[in-house]
Structure formats: C-alpha cells, structure tokens
Amino acid sequence: NDHHPALPMTAALLNSGGGELFLFFGAQLDTLSRLSDWEKEERIKELSCIYSVAECIEVSTTIPGFFRKLPEYLAPGSRYPDDTIVSASYHDVNYGRELTNDKYLEVMLTVNDQVTGRIRIGYIDPSRNVLPEEQKMLDEIGRMLNMALGRRELAETMAQKKVEEAEFQERLERMETEIAVREKEIQAQKQKLSTADSYL
After folding, report:
1. Which residues contact 194 (CB under 8 A, 6 or more apart)?
2. Helix (DSSP H) and strand (DSSP E) numbers for the chain
3. Is residue 128 over pLDDT 80?
4. Which H or E element spans position 10?
5. Three-state SS for 123?
6. Chain centroid to CA 108: how far?
7. Cα–Cα–Cα angle for 172, 175, 178, nearest 5°?
8. What share of the chain is helix, strand, coil (3-state, %, to 5)?
9. Model confidence over 83-117: pLDDT tens digits?
10. Which pLDDT score is estimated for 118?
C-alpha cells in the first residue's frame, strides 16, 4: 500500500552442508547491479563462506575441533580456493598450514579484550595477490568468531567449574567417610584400653 512501498531485492540460492540458503540483497542492490557477473559470484561465494563458518562453530563440539575444520570452510571463500592456505592459532596452539610468504590477510581474535589468536589466509603461489574484498570477508568472520568464541569459552569455563565442584564434593564425601571409619577405630581402641584398665 501507500504506507509500505515495495522494496526491490535481489536473491541468490546457495547450497551448503545444512541445505539450501537464500541470500537477499536490498540496500546494496544498486552496487550489485554495477558489478560484473564474476564479481557478483565472488561476493556470493564470500557470503556463503561466512555462513558456513558460522554454521561450523555452532555445530562443533569443541573449540579445537572447530579450528581443525576451519581451513575447509574458509578456503572456498577465497578467489583461488585450490591454492589457498589457511593458518590459525588460538591460545598458542597452531592449526592449518603455515604460510611460506608474507602475502596474506590477517585478523586477530580477541575474547574479553584479550588477544587470543589470529587467522591468516594466503596463497601457495607467491605471484597471486590477496584482494581487499577478501580482507572484508575475513574481518567479518573475525568479528563473528570473537562473539562466538567468547560464548563458547564462557560455556566451557562454566562446564569445567561444574566438573571441579563435583570432584571436590566427591573428595569431601570420601574424607568424611574416612574420618568416620577412623573415629570408629579410635572408639574401639578406647574401649579396649578401658577394659584393660578395669582388669588391671
């Protein structure tokens, strides 16, 4: 109606591990219309990569498990997927392959305002250059990961606290049982000494 005018949008269909995904573009419609078909495909590929990484961290059971899978999700978002190297570190543990040249994109990972790691993407072939658009993709993935990793670390810390509390409670119960046994032994010894005193 007059109060709610129609908004022109562009849609793209992507296939991911979790099924089909529709991407809708509204505010950037004019920008996309000026891009070549190749550039549009690259942008859609990058968005698909961001979605795949988000899905991966949600379904991963552990943080190290996520980082081990990360290269297979990040590489398809680059311009030359088959030539891509993904290197990551998190809490001083390295994942993926180390880059052999200094042409790479990088994003730092921070949790609670502390740098906890980084992700780097580059190419095996040193003559290939990384693109500014790929840095934007990596920055967005880094922003998303910082929030997700913060949640996961908090959840894992709380789970660890529960385990520690359960272990402490178990140790406390064992000590109480041992004390009760020792008290019975002491009482038995006292009874024997009392009987010996009476005899004497």
Report:
1. none
2. 4, 6
3. yes
4. strand 10-16
5. strand
6. 13
7. 155
8. 60, 20, 20
9. 989 999 999 999 988 888 888 889 999 888 889 99
10. 93
Higher-confidence residue of 135 and 36: namely 135
Would strands 104-111 and 19-25 be described as parallel, antiparallel, or unpaired? Answer: unpaired
| Residue 120 and residue 88 in contact, taking contact as beta carbons nearer than 8 Å | yes
Identify the residue with better confidence: 167 or 153.
167
State pTM to two decimals: 0.57
- Is the CB of residue 42 less than 8 Å from the CB of residue 137? no
Q: Specify whether the CB–CB gap between 106 and 120 falls below 8 A.
A: yes
- What band does 134 get if pLDDT is binned at 50, 70 and 90? confident
Tokens 């967005």 belong to: 140
Count CB neighbours of 136 within 10 A. 13
Per-chain mean pLDDT for the chain: 79
Residue 96 and residue 87 in contact, taking contact as beta carbons nearer than 8 Å: yes
Give one word for 140, left, alpha or beta, with left for phi > 0 and alpha for psi -120 to 50. alpha
Element of type H or E holding 197: helix 132-199
Both tokens assigned to 23? 């991407």
